[in-house]
Amino acid sequence: MISSNIFFFLFLMEFLGFNFAFLEIIPSQGELYAKPKGLFEISH
């Protein structure tokens, strides 16, 4: 339950435009956060 809340929080932060570099260390989530990070870096 706690872990699901954490992932929901991270997803919400990502959706709002925030980005956390430590997410790159998660292999299963690497591809999912690759594109949003690229858009985030370009827009800023």
Provide a descriptive summary of the structure in words.
The chain has 44 residues and is mainly α. The protein has one domain (2-43). The protein is 73% helix and 0% strand. It is built from two helices and no strands. It has helices spanning 2-16, 27-43. It is rod-shaped, with a radius of gyration of 11 Å. The N and C termini lie far apart (34 Å).
Keywords:
44 residues, mainly alpha, 73% helix, 0% strand, rod-shaped
Shape: rod-shaped
Rg measurement, Å = 11 Å
| Largest beta-sheet details | none
Distance between the termini: 34 Å
Q: State the domain count.
A: 1
Number of strands: 0
Helix-strand string: HH
Q: DSSP helix count?
A: 2
Structural class: mainly alpha
Model regions low in confidence, pLDDT < 50 over at least 5 residues: none
Tell me, rounded to a whole number, the average pLDDT. Answer: 60
Q: Roughly what percent helix?
A: over 70%
What portion of the residues fall into strands of 2 or more residues? under 5%
Concise summary:
The chain is mainly alpha-helical. It contains two helices and no strands. The longest helix is centred in the last third of the chain and has 17 residues, at 27-43.
Provide the fold topology.
Blueprint: H1 2-16, H2 27-43
